[in-house]
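This section describes the prediction task in plain terms. A model, or a person checking by hand, is given the sequence of a single protein chain and must write out its three-dimensional structure as a string of tokens. No templates, partner chains or ligands are provided. The sample shown here is typical of the held-out split.
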Amino acid sequence: MADSIPVTRIEVAMSRINAIRDAVRSVTHLGDGPDASRLADVGDAPALLAFLSDPAVHAPIYTLPRPLTEASVLAFIEDHLAERAAGEGLLFVRDDAEGTILGYSDIQVWPHWAAGELGGALHPSLHNQGRGARGAQASFAWMFTALHLDLICETASHENVPTQRMLDGFGFARKGDVTSMRPDGTTRASLVWEMTRDEWFSRFPG
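The expected answer:
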């Protein structure tokens, strides 16, 4: 996580902070419908490790534990459960009938700024089908409405051209560069984008 994000920091009233924390603590699914992602729990560690172990999944993502082991993935899930209890983060997974994880979403929330960040990945078998962009669009709208956020801040590496194109295509505003720190203490240069609630629903009403 980069300490310098979000770039835009507007303090909100304590009533808003409490409402955001309560919303984070109360949600159980990201979105609606039968294929909505569910909260990850400690029992998901083996399946999540199998999913994350593919370099096509983990290579672009700086927030994942390194090295990837069942113990580190279990700790990753436990950290997110603690963040949910504090009203500051969520970890969702989507799996199939056999229990194979097909995607995950990692949401960081800064309640005092009414801001959040979305990360995540899809199974490589679902790449290049437009599903990532459609899922991100639905998730951004959900974050604004379900979590009562005013701002979404996103980062991507300089090499992650698909994410850059997606964020630019959605109309996120570029905000420069930051240094992102991985859990193991190493760093990565990241580009930063932001979008406000009003800007989002002006572009994507309803």
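For orientation: The mean pLDDT is 92.
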